[in-house]
Amino acid sequence: MTTEWRPAVIRVMADSAASDTLARRRLNTRPFNYRWEHVTTVVTLALRLADLVGADRDIIEAAAWLHDVTKKDGKRHARSGAAFAQAFLARTDFPPDKIQQVAQAIADHRGLYRAKPLTRLESMVLWDADKLSKIGLTAAFHWTGMVLAGERISTAADLIAKGRKAGWQEKTVASMHTAPARRAALRRMTAFNRHWSALEAELLGYDLVNGEQSIP
Asked: Model's pTM, two decimal places?
């Protein structure tokens, strides 16, 4: 009986790819550290926003660095992070009169979108910076690295499908407090959607057909 070539070549390549994947796992490399990438991004965004809207840089920087310090606590991490920051900063030379505002900003950063806006400027800045990091190409990069490092995605098609399911992001964009964050959020949301469409177009070769990175 003659072996069908197409299933045969697919099978042999699948076996080869699996072996290559196992070999790479034994390499002495560090996995993608999503939490660190996220926090450092939030620090950068928060300080830029602080300068643009006149927020206190000390409060913003300390709150940005510590906002996810107790992320292990899950939904309670904003509250527990605020308590941690208050106790921790009190043992440092951080201005004592600003510690409570740092804790408040951390406590206020919970949630992906809001029904009611925040009223404290530093809380608004941290919230906006934190959520800006979760939309746009930054989010696509961070999220892709995180899921691939955790091996929860098996194919590019799965990655694209899951990336497009982030329906909460529209509510996040609508919840931005500061004018610079609102403008950036709208641009990032557009870039995020275009990213997945362009990726799918490339993977399917549609850019060879119509010369554009979009699905016809």
From this structure: 0.82
**Is residue 216 pLDDT above 60, yes or no?**
no
Backbone angles phi, psi at 134, to 5 degrees: -100, 5
Domains within the chain, CATH numbers bracketed: 34-112 (1.10.472)
Residue 166 vs residues 9, 12, 45, 158, 177: alpha-carbon distances, Å: 36, 36, 21, 13, 21
- Segment 26-55 mean pLDDT: 88
Report, as an integer, the average pLDDT of 173-197: 92
In contact, 109 and 78? CB cutoff 8 Å: yes
Identity of the amino acid at 201: A
Are 46 and 141 a contacting pair, CB within 8 Å?
A: no
Closest Cα partner for 130 from 159, 154, 105? Answer: 105
Evaluate whether 128 touches 181 at the Cβ level (below 8 Å).
yes
124-145: average pLDDT:
90
Considering only CA atoms, which of 66, 98, 97 is closest in space to residue 84?
66
Distance CA 179, CA 98 (A): 25
